[in-house]
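Q&A log
Question type: sequence-to-structure
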Amino acid sequence: MKFSAKSYTPLVFSIGAVVGLAMACGPATTNQESEGTVAAEEPVEPGLELLWETPAELTTNESVHFEESGDILYVANIEGGPDEKDGVGSISKVSTSGEILERDWVTGLHAPKGMTVMKDHLYVTDIDHLVEIDLATGEITETYEVDGAVFLNDATSDGKKVFFSDMRTNTIHYLEDGGIHTFATEQKSINGLRIGNGGILYGLDAEGLKQYNSDGSFELINAEVTGGDGLIVLDEQTFIASRWAGEIYLVQEGKATKILDTTEEESNTADIGFIPDENIVLVPTFFKNKVVAYQLTY
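Response status: OK
Response body:
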């Protein structure tokens, strides 16, 4: 706020001059003061506003990934049992406005879940294998067996490695140069993973939201959102985390705020995706068989 300095000369005036001076020195705001004053911004209440939803044709969709290079959404459909090798799982392609472009872009998977893109391939976790799919053709180019794996779940990439979680063995693995390696163990019910700025790995497990160091050690950022599923990194202090049952939280500077709750509608919020340029959160609803898009405000 600007203040105008006023000087007063201690002279003796007539009564009329004194009145005029008083009026001139009153609290009226000048144009210069009005233009220079910046109104305080009202705090924005964090929330999610419904934008669109796909037709309910994406059977047991567990994960949605926005791929900027193709301006496309990839959706993983379990279709059968989440841990059954039944060969009925699939990947769909959906537009960023909710139109199903290719319902059966990739078929023959078992129970596909987490997805990430590295270079020209989509990587998908599939129970005890990591599947590599050519983005241009939709062909499966490689299948990596993961020794001892039981329930592979989420996936993310820093451009050189593909990190992925095994929820039932409490392990984070990574793929590098065609080989599978272990990054961290004893991460109870580890699920959601996401690479943030500077190549930092973040994860959600039974203890809460964690930030990992390069040696697999970690720091706990938030202990409220336990048992989380999907994770989005907005910046080093701001995250979005979902719980499968139907809850989504905004975590800012370690504090969690619930911004969506669809538990009463029995609409799940599984491995969420995000369109960063538009602040759109993409929610795979699992048993509701559709992806729902929300506008994020915070």
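Response note: The chain has two helices and 24 strands.
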